[in-house]
Amino acid sequence: MTKPSAIWRVMKQHVFQLHRGTAMRLCALMLLTLTSYSVKAQSMPAWEREAHSRIDQIRRENLKVIVLDQGQTPLPGVNVKITQRRHAMPLGLTVSPDQLPLDILVSQNLSAPLFRVFNSVNLGDIGRWDHLEPEMGLGDTGRIKYWLNWANELGMRVRYGSVFSANLNHQTEWVSILGRRDLMASLELHQRQILNQFGTRVSAIDLYGHALGHHFVEQQLSTVMLRRMYEQATAVCPEVPMAVQMDDVLNPMRVKQAVARMSELKNAFVPVEQWSIGVHIPADVDPHKLQSGLDWLASLNVPIMVTNLSFASDCSLEAVRTALIMLYSHPAVKGIYIALPSADEMTSPPRLPLTDARGQMTRAGSVVDEMFTDTWISRGELKTDMRGSVMTRVFSGLYDLSATLPDGQVAYTSVYVPDLPEGQGNQTVVISPLSVSLEPIN
Q: Quick one: pLDDT at residue 28?
């Protein structure tokens, strides 16, 4: 959210260059905008004002649209319609091992409320070693392929989730009878098979899951072995971030433990590229404690992916909203995946459902939907200036742009506005009518 002082400085530079009547109207509009902003901002607590200011700074980019006629001459006074189709930031759902698409999308589709927010799927523990090989050599990857095909058909990204678990209780019985050499060979073989099959089809991989409080590979083999696993994975799939996954890290009792665990891995030169975290929001969520916890994690300079966000069953709607604002406004958070239990699903601990048994949104689901489709979205119409251009600030993502030309013709295009580091400059796109000759091609 841009501050009034910043708006005033920018508009003051240009407003008096305009025709006096236009300038007066623009000043009146500006005053109305600033008054509206001031009233709304004053009603917010300080933490929320600061959070929205951060969101404007880190989640929005400058977009310049130039409209040209068929002769490639700039067109002033043309209406430009901007419609955001999808966010750039990974926003998705995390599925459980026993779920299939039809279990979640009972009567939903990706244009329906809640699901229109998502651009990605996190497979969670579906592809974990013990789930794929309950018996040695079984290697059933059918469920992974099913999810991948479904997501790819809908243009959604897929995060693989955990390959191995650091929790000794998440290993199959046959692993316990292996000697150290055989265990090392089995780990490397399974990792190689997974990366060869799916490495080019996923956006990221949690190579080592449940790593907070658990040390399976380090205890059975060594930290050197864990480092080697990450080095080999990065070499095979250099464009796919290899993450370490930890559960419930923003619990005040676990934040410092999580930082110590990640520091331990970094000091051992394990090349972790992402920090995949589970976050469970309690009913009494405190935005200041949430901010403090995220700051602690961010101090290690490892990109954070919230890959399993859930809410306590007694969370209020305001608690859901508060958690989303704090997570979305933190610069270290690079993606958010939400656990999607339905009202009839038994979970431990009990979690707030976002959909009911019929697949319809609950009130909590409506909060999630509204934040990303009404509050944090860019759409509207603007008019080009005397140079045939408009400059605006939009959330990073995929856009449809159209311009209604003086002759009534509508020119259109699409543009992807990436999430750029601060100070990387502006995105520019040109809209111009497409003229196709009907003469035969020579």
A: 37
Read off the amino acid at residue 187: L
In 3D space, the residue among 406, 408, 404, 413 whose CA is nearest the CA of residue 434 turns out to be 413
CATH homologous superfamily for the domain 86-375 = Glycosidases (3.20.20.80)
pTM, entire model? 0.85
CA angle 333, 334, 340 (to 5 degrees): 85
Residues 6+ apart with CB under 8 A from 224: none
Q: Where are the domains of the chain?
A: 86-375
| Residue 353: predicted pLDDT | 84
Residue type at position 336: I
What local confidence, expressed as pLDDT, does residue 350 receive?
Answer: 76
> Rounded CA gap, 347 and 344, in Å?
9
The pLDDT score that the predictor gives to residue 381 is: 92
* pLDDT for res 32: 35
3-class DSSP string for the chain: CCCHHHHHHHHHHHHCCCCHHHHHHHHHHHHHHHHHHHHHHHCCCHHHHHHHHHHHHHHEEEEEEEEECCCCCECCCCEEEEEEEEECCCEEEECCCCCCHHHHCCCCCCCCCCCCCCCEEECCCCCCHHHHCCCCCCCCCHHHHHHHHHHHHCCCEEEEEEEEECCHHHCCHHHHHCCHHHHHHHHHHHHHHHHHHHCCCCCEEEEEECCCCCCHHHHHCCHHHHHHHHHHHHHHCCCCCEEEEECCCCCCCCHHHHHHHHHHHHHCCCCCCEEEEEEEECCCCCHHHHHHHHHHHHCCCCCEEEEEEEEECCCCHHHHHHHHHHHHCCCCEEEEEEECCECCCCCCCCECCCECCCCCECHHHHHHHHHHHHHCCCEEEEECCCCCEEEEEEECEEEEEEEECCCCCEEEEEEEECCCCCCCCCEEEEECCCCCCCCCCC
Q: Tell me the β-bridge partners of 375.
A: none
On whether the CB atoms of residues 198 and 148 are closer than 8 A, the answer is: yes
Q: Output Rg (C-alpha) for the chain, integer angstroms.
A: 25
Nearest partner of 352 among 315, 319, 323, judged by Cα? 315
Q: Could you tell me whether strands 157-165 and 120-122 are parallel, antiparallel, or unpaired per DSSP bridges?
A: parallel
Express as a percent the part of the chain with pLDDT over 90. 63
Residue stretches of the chain with pLDDT short of 50:
1-39, 107, 436-438
